[in-house]
TrEMBL record:
Family annotation (InterPro entries): Cyt_c-like_dom, Cyt_c-like_dom_sf, Cytochrome_c_Peroxidase/MauG, Di-haem_cyt_c_peroxidsae
PANTHER family: BLL6722 PROTEIN (PTHR30600:SF10), CYTOCHROME C PEROXIDASE-RELATED (PTHR30600)
Protein name per Swiss-Prot or TrEMBL: Cytochrome-c peroxidase
Organism: Rheinheimera salexigens
A GO molecular function held by the record: cytochrome-c peroxidase activity
Localization per record: Cell envelope
SUPFAM superfamilies: Cytochrome c (SSF46626)
Cellular compartments per GO CC: cell envelope
TM segment ranges: 12-36
Length: 396
């Protein structure tokens, strides 16, 4: 009897152990399945490249460039669901064919009220000043993406309500799950930022010239030399003074501190707008605005932060004789002149007509036709519509 009892106890213990092991295995399998079903992929953009001459760039550690995040960001960029009336998307004010500007003096959003600023081109955003918008009020691309969504005149969207609506969309739930795990406000702005990081323009005729693939025309070459030179009458060096604010390769403002911001003489002290002062509250920064990239400048009219100049000819005319004095006017503009100074009140580059035409000819070499038509940056909804129409035509 004792042996039977011992045998029974041992059998029960073995059964309990087996049961515990089985439960543990089930838990491990279930949690592993859950992990892999909820695991965010890390599909880095291995084909992502940028010109060496642009210099180093940094991607936030908490928002790596992945195929999934860029795909999601591209869809969000073109989707009017981001606006309160479902009619305005990021692409409304940033059209690819116009180098992601909109052709208006100042943009118009859901309210119908003209905004304060001209739409800046979204190109090569990982380089240049690390403060975004004309007045530098945003410290990152992620932060920059949120501003227009919540702005009362731009998109007027409650970000939390937007999260709720995106969660109701099967496609978005899938894309967010793949990119960031779930639909969140942070995921929205991260995805938009990453899509914009991929908007790299680097195949203009100027880029091809830098790579030694083509030569510029004599007129374009004269314009390039003028663009790159600060005038110096002591050595008879004529220049357009452009490079003092627009870096040699990127043609955007400089990245160090606030070096990428400048007062370029648009207004006198009485009419001077706040500009960078909005961010710093430093009077020395009143009237300073971000120097934009000149990449694709021929298609991004009108020009300046308020769109006051309709043509490149008007821009050159401003620098050649339309400069207005103010307390914060850039000394580089005051000093730049192609003839010896004869009177302190008048500020002018004193370029001749041939030189102005040459500079404009060079600016046209900055147009990147490949960038303006790159399907990777295009509206994904139009692609889907085209695919559906093609599929339908095959069955008709």
């Amino acid at each position: 009897m004792l042996m039977k009892a011992i045998t029974l106890v041992v059998a029960i213990r073995l059964a309990v152990i087996a049961l515990v092991i089985a439960i543990v295995i089930i838990i491990v399998i279930a949690s592993t399945s859950y992990y892999f079903s909820h695991k965010k992929p890390v599909t880095h953009l291995v084909e992502f490249t940028a010109p060496f001459v642009f210099g180093r760039f940094i991607v936030p550690e908490d928002n790596p460039l992945t195929k999934e995040s860029v795909e999601l960001g591209r869809r969000l960029f073109y989707d009017p669901i981001l606006s309160s009336n479902n009619q305005v998307s990021c692409a409304t004010c940033h059209k690819q064919a116009l180098a992601f500007t909109d052709g208006l003096k100042t943009s118009i959003g859901v309210s119908g009220t003209p905004l304060s600023f001209n739409a800046m081109s979204l190109v090569n955003l990982m380089w240049g000043p690390k403060h975004f918008f004309w007045d530098g009020r945003s410290p990152s691309l992620e932060d920059q993406a949120l501003h227009p969504i919540e702005h009362i005149d731009e998109m007027a969207r409650d970000i939390d309500q937007l999260v709720v609506e995106l969660n109701k969309d099967k496609t978005y739930k899938k894309l967010f799950k793949q990119a960031y795990g779930s639909v969140t406000a942070q995921g929205i702005v991260k995805a938009l930022a990453n899509f914009q990081r991929t908007l790299i323009s680097a195949n203009s005729r100027y880029d091809q010239y830098l790579r030694g693939e083509i030569t510029l025309s004599p007129q374009e070459e004269q314009g390039r030399k003028l663009f790159m030179a600060h005038p110096d009458t002591k050595v008879t060096l004529r220049g357009g003074n452009c490079i003092d604010c627009h870096s040699q390769f990127l043609t955007s403002g400089f990245a160090t501190a606030f070096d990428g911001f400048s007062n370029n003489g648009l207004d006198n002290d009485q009419a001077l707008q706040a500009g960078l002062f909005t961010l710093t509250n430093n009077e020395a920064h009143r009237g300073l605005f971000k120097a934009p990239t000149l990449r694709n400048i021929a298609v991004t009219a009108p020009y300046m932060h308020d769109g006051r100049f309709a043509t490149l000819e008007q821009v050159l005319a401003h620098y050649n004789g339309g400069i207005k004095r103010s307390k914060t006017l850039s000394p580089l503009i005051i000093e730049a002149d192609n003839i010896p100074k004869t009177q302190n009140d008048h500020i002018s580059l004193n370029l001749n007509e041939q030189e102005i035409v040459a500079i404009i000819a060079f600016l046209h070499t900055l147009t990147d036709e490949e960038f303006l038509a790159n399907s990777a940056f295009a509206n994904p909804f139009l692609e889907q519509s085209l695919e559906r129409n093609l599929e339908k035509s095959r069955h008709d």
